[in-house]
């Protein structure tokens, strides 16, 4: 039987129908209606954040957050990493800003905080780090650097839904954090996303910018786009949020089985759990060191594919090696990101994956 790298968690059909019934009655289908507000408040509770603004997807949430913080008008450079989904870089560029790529650390694949300050120039306006695979960036060091150099910090938290650091929701760090609720993520609303923040002055800005910059029935204050989350997808989000603990529990069991099978295998590197950080078990990335393990990442990818098991080279290529960015950048500036992108593989990970299938995948890799 075919195994995909991911499979969306779903509520029961009855549960979803129950949640969308009021929409059929009210005929308010979008424009920040009652279901949107219900979803927003449920998320504020779940993510333990002060403020949260919903978006039609994570990408536009990030793009709009960059604009809302005044960075688009300011212009300049933004320090980020090339080991991410291309959305992070595109959001910077589409705001007229210049990405400056900082390398990642080999342990958790997040921004290497030792290398940030060397990249800061008088043009630097912000840092946009990524909580890769739900691994938390070194938020304490980043905050210190940002304070010292007067920079804004926006986290790409697309992978970090629901994780906490010392009991604090990840969405509380930096000036803002973006979350994605895309169907392939561990929590989803089909498509969807959010920005969390603690400065209340961003609330109105984000609200207006996702709705064409309209600030009242008779005026338009900003040059905004359209990035509103509709009522039907908010309803899907509400249903899935209710099941989130169950979903994480199932993922944890899969995670633990993988760890059991792969620990102490020479040439296989797993992400080590971080102290004081809770995990959401969104992904299971494995780094293959060909010289020690004997097989490369690509060998394993091909082998599993022959058995109809589909893994993902995630992230590959690094963003500074994609066609649209490689002319302006050199991967030699970020050697760790280059190496990890070549050797890492995300194994199947989703709520309904059976432990028997996990064992089958592990047996194929280990034999
Ligand atoms: C999924 C993802 C995004 C984009 O989110 P969408 O909801 O798909 O627009 C951005 N950054 C990272 C790291 C992601 O994984």
UniProtKB/TrEMBL annotation:
<keyword id="KW-0663">Pyridoxal phosphate</keyword>
<comment type="similarity">
    <text>Belongs to the DegT/DnrJ/EryC1 family.</text>
</comment>
<keyword id="KW-0032">Aminotransferase</keyword>
<dbReference type="InterPro" id="IPR015424">
    <property type="entry name" value="PyrdxlP-dep_Trfase"/>
</dbReference>
<dbReference type="GO" id="GO:0030170">
    <property type="term" value="F:pyridoxal phosphate binding"/>
</dbReference>
<feature type="active site" description="Proton acceptor">
    <location>
        <position position="185"/>
    </location>
</feature>
<dbReference type="GO" id="GO:0008483">
    <property type="term" value="F:transaminase activity"/>
</dbReference>
<protein>
    <submittedName>
        <fullName>Aminotransferase DegT</fullName>
    </submittedName>
</protein>
<dbReference type="InterPro" id="IPR000653">
    <property type="entry name" value="DegT/StrS_aminotransferase"/>
</dbReference>
<dbReference type="InterPro" id="IPR015421">
    <property type="entry name" value="PyrdxlP-dep_Trfase_major"/>
</dbReference>
<feature type="modified residue" description="N6-(pyridoxal phosphate)lysine">
    <location>
        <position position="185"/>
    </location>
</feature>
<dbReference type="GO" id="GO:0000271">
    <property type="term" value="P:polysaccharide biosynthetic process"/>
</dbReference>
<dbReference type="Pfam" id="PF01041">
    <property type="entry name" value="DegT_DnrJ_EryC1"/>
</dbReference>
<keyword id="KW-0808">Transferase</keyword>
